[in-house]
Every structure is written in structure tokens, then in C-alpha cells.
Specification:
Bound molecules: S-adenosylmethionine, iron/sulfur cluster, FE3-S4 cluster
Number of strands: 19
CATH architecture of the largest domain: Alpha-Beta Horseshoe
Strand order of the largest sheet: 2-1-3-4-5-6
Shape: globular
Radius of gyration: 23 Å
CATH superfamily of the largest domain: tm_1862 like domain
Distance between the termini: 60 Å
Number of helices: 14
Length: 469
């Protein structure tokens, strides 16, 4: 830019719209459209944030590329939930240093949950000097201003402030043409003792229902077939709003929108998974018949030390409620193995509850110590070898359960949302059933993004197969 004027004081910056306009005018003078490479790590909420960050870049005139070496801007949207997630980001940042050396005009931005932590932002500033812009997960609406400052000569721009307002005017660039993630709330109030999320994402903030409904109406009008509602605990949706609305009420309002689509949601904290929620799932035509209900451990002692605020017994009574109304209702869960001082007996209780609930799928994680959380201060004497052994036992058990569970679909006709071609078997397509089970069937790529009917003929531990009818 020819009118360099360094402004480092945040308050004196032009507005986001002014920054976008100025950058757009500048980029339009480039001989070719500049391309951005955007990659999000972590959970679906982070991926949804990445789509909004891409939306800001698009409004400035950037196109997108999957080939990092063709990009004039690289944005990594990071995750802090486990240590290996952070290690991957530092490794990736190290590996792109040479791209900056080859092309000093390349802009590198790091955003997300990892950089919401001051010590991480400081480490990047000091040790990864090829990074130009650092933003925290709650500061994404200042991306344009940070870029504006960088383009006006500021070598390193950072905003890791915790902004509580939810920007409603950021239009995402969605990866899929038929599945859309719709965050309904941000942040978390629960402070599970192992978890970094409340520290990097701040307190719960719910979006206004009319904004959510309008977004979903537009998506359905554009032909989207699956809407995934997202929040760290969707069951506390609305508690911070002036108008009285609960999550089951929101589900029922969405369900009234006419069209051919499914609604999914995650995550649901068991402490707030009420009978009203289960009744809404079962009675709403568009709500998929699947509930992700993270249990984390089957031991009451561990649940207490995790600050989860439910017991194995209350959890089982919720399972009994929904399975009482729908006997083969699909449940999936998250589990943490090797929480500080998890005894063999605690672990046996986890295996026992997994055997009893018979989940269709689970995500198991080895406990990772997160600085700043309460659990990080707890003594932790279980060896890594022991944790890995427990993990293997759990995964073996889950495979056995899934083989048995998947047999319930044999001969049944399922509605499946086709989402791609099978990577292993040419001429076959894959998709998910309402229960979120992976289904493979013969078909053609024009089915991608459409609902099809499949009669199930084979079941395996990780998928079921069938014939189109
Ligand atoms: N809010 C969701 C809930 O409470 O179910 C979970 C969101 S968290 C991003 C996803 C999963 O990561 C958690 O359910 C938990 O199993 C796992 N997790 C979180 N912190 C962890 C840690 N320190 N070590 C290992 N796994 C962790
Ligand atoms: Fe983390 Fe617990 Fe909040 Fe989920 S509910 S994000 S596990 S603190
Ligand atoms: Fe998600 Fe990771 Fe942040 S799991 S909320 S991106 S810490």
C-alpha cells in the first residue's frame, strides 16, 4: 500500500467494513485474484468459525485454494483441547517457515482456541516470527482490522481479547453444499476440571432464536439437507437470553420449517438432558434419531472429580427413558481414559456402563493435562503404558458392541443422506442414516447431497451395506 500509516492503537482503527473496503480496493489491483489457504483444526464449532473467517476473507476479494504453496494468505484456526492438538499446530507452523522465506509477502494468520491463551500467543510472537497475525477464538470479527494494520506496515498484529458480542453479519463460506453447521451458542459455563474450553471460549452466549431460524430457513431454501446445531452444551441454550426459550423449544420451532432436511445437534451435557429434550427428538419429524451424550467416565468418583454434575445412575436413567420409548435408539458418547488417579476399578466401571448402554460409536481420548485447569493440579501417577492398555481394551469392547448393534439394521430400509463416493470400493457411494450410521451402497456421484432409500443386507463393525431401492 502506498499510504503507509502505522496505527497500533486498537480504538483508532477504521471500522471492519471500512477495512474490508480498503483491502478489497487494494487487492483488486493485483494482476491475479489472491488466494487464501484456510485450515481449521479441532471440533465442528471451530470448523464453523473457520468458515466465517473464510467469509471475511472472501468479502475482501480473496479466492481459496487447497494448495498451500499457491496461497498469498495462510490461516490456521487452531484447537487447544489436548496437547497433541497444540503440538500439531506448532509442527505445522514450523514447516511453513520456508514458504515465507520464499515469498516474504505471504501473510500468515493463526486464530482459534490455542491462540486465545496468552502464553501461546507470546510463544508464537517470540519463536515463530514468520507469523503476522494472531487472533483469539472470540476475536475473529477483528480479522479485517488486523489485516488492515498488517497491510499498513505493522509487522505483528494480535487480538486475543474475549469479545462477548456475537457478530451476526459474518457470512460463512461453507465447505459443503448440502450439510451446514449452525452454531447456536458460544462458550461454556461448566468448567469440567480437565477442560480448557471455558478458558479459551469464555462464558455461554446464545444466539437470538430469530437469527438462528432465519439462517436455517435460508439454508433449506438453498437446498441444504442437514443442519448441525452446535454448542458446547446445547441443552443450556437460551438460559442467558431475555426471552424465555429452551433448547427443546428451539428444536420444535426449527422443525416447523417445511422442507426435506435433517436437524442434528451436538453436544448435549448429560446434566441437562431432560425428558423434554428426548421427547422433542422423538416427536420432531426433522430431528435425526440419534443423541450424542458424552459420559466421560462410568465411575461416580471420577465424574465427581471431573465436576460433571451427574452420576452413572442418573445417566442410565436418561438412557432408559429414551430407550423405553424407542428400544434401538442410537446413542454415541465421548470418554476420557486415564483421568488423574483413575483406578482399575474406576476403569472397570467405565467398561461396565459401555457394555450396558451399547453405544453405536464413541470417541475415546487419553487424558491430556491442560495448564490452567483444576485437573492439571491433581496428582497423576498412572503410566502412559497403562492408559494405552485401557484404551485398547475399550476400543476392542466397542468394536464387539458395534458388530452386534449393526445387525439390528439387516433387512431394514433406511433413509440415507448420500455424502460421497466410497474410497475403497469403486461404483459405491457412502452416506449416513438418521441414526448417524455409515452406510455403503451402489450408486452414482449425482446422488451426493440427496436422500436415498437403502435396504440393508450386510453389517460390519464400522458400517452397514445395502442395495438401493
Ligand atoms: N462440550 C462437550 C461436552 O461436554 O460433551 C465436549 C467438548 S470437548 C471439545 C470434546 C471432548 O474432548 C470432550 O467430551 C472430552 O471427552 C474431550 N476432552 C476435553 N478435554 C480433554 C482433555 N484434557 N484430555 C482428553 N480429552 C479431553
Ligand atoms: Fe469442556 Fe465440560 Fe464445557 Fe464440554 S461441558 S466444553 S467438556 S468444560
Ligand atoms: Fe473446539 Fe478445540 Fe476449541 S475442541 S472449542 S477447537 S479447544
Amino acid at each position: 500500500m502506498n499510504h503507509l500509516q502505522e496505527k497500533t492503537e486498537f480504538e483508532n482503527l477504521p471500522s471492519r467494513a471500512e477495512c474490508i473496503q480498503e483491502i478489497r480496493t487494494w487487492l483488486e489491483q493485483w494482476p491475479d485474484q489472491p488466494l487464501a489457504y484456510v485450515h481449521s483444526f479441532g471440533c465442528q464449532l471451530n470448523v464453523a468459525d473457520g468458515e466465517k473467517l473464510a467469509g471475511i476473507l472472501k468479502s475482501m476479494g480473496y479466492g481459496f485454494t487447497n494448495q498451500i504453496e499457491k496461497a498469498s494468505l495462510i490461516l490456521y484456526n487452531t484447537c487447544a483441547v489436548r496437547e497433541n492438538a497444540e503440538d500439531r499446530v506448532f509442527g505445522t507452523l514450523g514447516s511453513i517457515k520456508k514458504l515465507k522465506q520464499e515469498n516474504p509477502g505471504l501473510i500468515i494468520c493463526v486464530t482459534g482456541c490455542m491462540t486465545a491463551q496468552k502464553q501461546v500467543a507470546d510463544k508464537i510472537k517470540q519463536s515463530y516470527r514468520h507469523v503476522d497475525i494472531v487472533l483469539g477464538s472470540s476475536a475473529m470479527n477483528t480479522l479485517a482490522q488486523m489485516l488492515w494494520m498488517h497491510m499498513h506496515g505493522l509487522k505483528y498484529a494480535e487480538d486475543i481479547s474475549m469479545q462477548i458480542d456475537i457478530p451476526e453479519d459474518l457470512k460463512p463460506v461453507r465447505e459443503s453444499k448440502f450439510k451446514a453447521a449452525v452454531p447456536i451458542m458460544y462458550g461454556c459455563n461448566n468448567f469440567c476440571t480437565y477442560c480448557i474450553v471455558p478458558y479459551v471460549r469464555g462464558r455461554e452466549r446464545s444466539r437470538q432464536p430469530e437469527h438462528i431460524l432465519e439462517e436455517i430457513r435460508n439454508l433449506i431454501a438453498q437446498g441444504y439437507k442437514e443442519i448441525m446445531l452446535l454448542g458446547q452444551n446445547v441443552n443450556s441454550y437460551g438460559k442467558d437470553l431475555k426471552q424465555e426459550i429452551t433448547f427443546p423449544e428451539l428444536l420444535r420451532k426449527i422443525d416447523q420449517i417445511p422442507g426435506e432436511y435433517w436437524i442434528r445437534f451436538m453436544s448435549s451435557h448429560p446434566k441437562d438432558a431432560t425428558p423434554e429434550l428426548m421427547d422433542a427428538i422423538l416427536s420432531c419429524e426433522h430431528v435425526a434419531k440419534h443423541l450424542h451424550l458424552p459420559i466421560q467416565s462410568g465411575s461416580n468418583e471420577i465424574l465427581k472429580r471431573m465436576n460433571r454434575k451427574y452420576t452413572a445412575e442418573t445417566y442410565l436413567s436418561q438412557v432408559a427413558y429414551i430407550r423405553g420409548k424407542c428400544p434401538d435408539f442410537s446413542l454415541t458418547t465421548d470418554l476420557i481414559i486415564g483421568f488423574p488417579e483413575e483406578s482399575e476399578q474406576d476403569f472397570e466401571q467405565t467398561l461396565a456402563i459401555v457394555r450396558q448402554v451399547k453405544y453405536d460409536n464413541m470417541y475415546c481420548f487419553i487424558y491430556s493435562k491442560r495448564t490452567g485447569t483444576k485437573a492439571a493440579l491433581m496428582p497423576d501417577s498412572i503410566s502412559d503404558a497403562e492408559k494405552s492398555q485401557r484404551m485398547q481394551k475399550l476400543l476392542t469392547l466397542q468394536r464387539e458392541i458395534a458388530v452386534e448393534n449393526n445387525q439390528r439394521f439387516i433387512s431394514r430400509i433406511l433413509t440415507v443422506l448420500c455424502d460421497g463416493e466410497s474410497k475403497k470400493r469403486p461404483g459405491r457411494m457412502t452416506g449416513r442414516s438418521s441414526e448417524n450410521i455409515l452406510v455403503e451402497f451402489p450408486g452414482t456421484p449425482d446422488m451426493i447431497g440427496q436422500f436415498v432409500k437403502v435396504q440393508i443386507t450386510e453389517s460390519h463393525n464400522n458400517m452397514i451395506c445395502g442395495e438401493l431401492i
